Amino acid sequence: MDTMDFKPQELGKWEMDRDLTGYGETPVDPEWPNGAKIAVSFVLNYEEGAERNIRHGDDCSESYIWEKCGPATELKNARHLMSEGEFEYGSRAGCWRVLRLMKEFNFPMTLYAVAQAFAKNPDFAKACVRDGHEIGNHGLRWINWGNCTDEEQIEMIKAAILLLEESSGEAPVGAYIGRGNINTPALVREAHKQLGKPFLWESDCYGDDLPFWVDLPQERELPDEEKEGLLMIPYAYVTNDYKFVSSNPGPGFPGAFVYEDYLKQEFDQLYREGGRMMNIPLHSRIIGKPGRINALRNFMKYISEKEGVWVTTRRDIAKHFQEKFPYVPGKLAVKKE
Q1: DSSP 137-201
Q2: Of 21, 121, 309, 314, which is most buried, counting CB atoms within 10 Å of its CB?
Q3: CA-CA distance, 96 to 284, in Å (whole number)?
Q4: Domain holding 317: CATH number?
Q5: Higher-scoring residue by pLDDT: 227, 75
Q6: What would the pLDDT profile of 211-249 be if each residue is shown by its tens digit?
Q7: Confidence band (pLDDT; 50, 70, 90) for 326?
């Protein structure tokens, strides 16, 4: 086929197009509060109790993101003692260790909370809200949604919103599904709209160091004055603690000292550039292990001694950005006059 004759496939009803240029050479200055040079977002992925398990109605055990993970560990139509124990460590011990550490530094975090997992540990869910942390929507179950229909995704997202509110006392205003498909961000927005629930941010994106607005596919035919857009707050895998247990495509973080050093290196560069944000993705069953959490403590101490660091939730990043840069159709960010 002659690539010069290639015609791109028409976008689907819920599908957003790619953007390969972004902010370009001169990114927008987000004007973080109090002149901060960097916004730091700690994110705890809470998934324990919603992973694949025949006790949850699945046909196999969970083989993803635990200490001895990988396809070879999956058991068909059977329970996996080690897998279950690793996830239980996160919900029984690791999550509380993380919560205590956040309290030690008085740092807020965002929870990417899977609704059925939170429902099985309501004490932790309510403690997070009590301590001022944000509850974000990480889906109804921690499974691959890639082959779900659009309607199935909307219904699962709506169910997750209601269950998270019931379990924690707080309804999510943002979401990171993580295991969805190309339609998921727009479907999340649609689910909130159908429920009449407020919505501020979506994080199923990885392509920048700053928030940005996108046009919603379901608003293509609306007049500009009726469009609401969708604020994307990018997430990241490079700083994700899951790399402690990742063996594909490489060894990940071989030790806590490497993890700590990488976090500091990334922070230093973003801090030097100024006007950026940094993600610290965490999992209770991974960073919550005693031999790793002290590396996170060292990093937290390091940034706590720097001036101009805004440690915040994604909710507050979204509120700030929306105030400074309200949505303008077709634009990533336009400063409010």
Answers
A1: E--SSSS--TT--HHHHHHHHHHHHHHHHHHHS---SEE--SS--TTHHHHHHHHHHHHT----E
A2: 314
A3: 8
A4: 3.20.20.370
A5: 227
A6: 999 999 999 999 999 999 999 999 999 999 888 887 544
A7: very high
